[in-house]
Amino acid sequence: MAFLHLAILKNGTFNEQDLAGSDLAYLGVGRTLDKLAYLKENGLITINKESFSITDTARQILWDNTTPLQIRILRLLQIKSFEESEIAKYLQEEPITTQHEIDRSRKQGFVIFTTIKKDERIIKVCEITHEGVELLLSPNPRSQLQKLLQNLSDKIQDSKIPEQKINQILEKIRNTSTELD
Predict the structure, then answer these.
(1) DSSP letter string, 91-148
(2) Helices vs. strands in the chain: H and E counts, helices first
(3) What is the pLDDT of residue 24?
(4) Interior CA angle at 25 toward 24 and 31, to 5°?
């Protein structure tokens, strides 16, 4: 991920000097070559004589602004668990916007926060849930959204809210679901 992010920061292309001057210098030659080979094999970078370039496929996966931010966050979390600030950095999004989407995804059950020990300190990282993976794998995001709306309707009907208020809420959900068709 860090290699692709470096490419994005360097307008799509980076070279050995860019790697040496980045946070990736600690990896060493062997691990760097392994990671570059992996990215090339998976069609995420191309190797030119003196530089490496990010492919359009890699750009579309995480940095295509026509893809909803929630989906890009989930795709990133499929690669690895990250802190909120790292997610914003890698996706090149405003931290507030990213935090809002992460909170929304957490409320929908697509991500969870866990704590891990890193360098003698405890940090909170964001991880994708099984439901988040299912959302990414679902062939039709609209059908997934309709499923969520149906689950919401079921929960509302089972609640202790006054019946008139339930009917108003259910009508709004039906209208939203109908608009998705």
Answers:
(1) HT--HHHHHHHHHHHHHTTSEEEEEEEETTEEEEEEEE-HHHHHHHH-S-HHHHHHHH
(2) 10, 5
(3) 79
(4) 75
Tokens in use for 161? 């809210």
Rounded to an integer, what distance in angstroms lies between the CA atom of residue 157 and that of residue 93? Answer: 38
CA angle 180, 58, 93 (to 5 degrees): 70
Burial (0-12, 13-18, 19+ Cβ within 10 Å), 30? exposed
pLDDT single digits (tens) 38-71: 888 888 889 888 888 888 888 888 888 888 889 9
Spatial distance between the Cα atoms of 40 and 88, rounded to a whole number of angstroms: 25
pLDDT digits (tens, 9 = 90+) for 99-135: 999 999 999 999 999 998 888 888 899 999 999 988 8
Supply the DSSP symbol for 15: -
Report the pLDDT value the prediction gives residue 111, as an integer from 0 to 100: 94
Residue 114: strand pairing partners: 125
**70, 104 Cβ separation under 8 angstroms:** yes
Contact criterion met (CB below 8 Å) for 50 and 15: yes
Cα 152 to Cα 9: distance, rounded to the nearest angstrom: 41
- Residue 63 tokens read as 């940095």
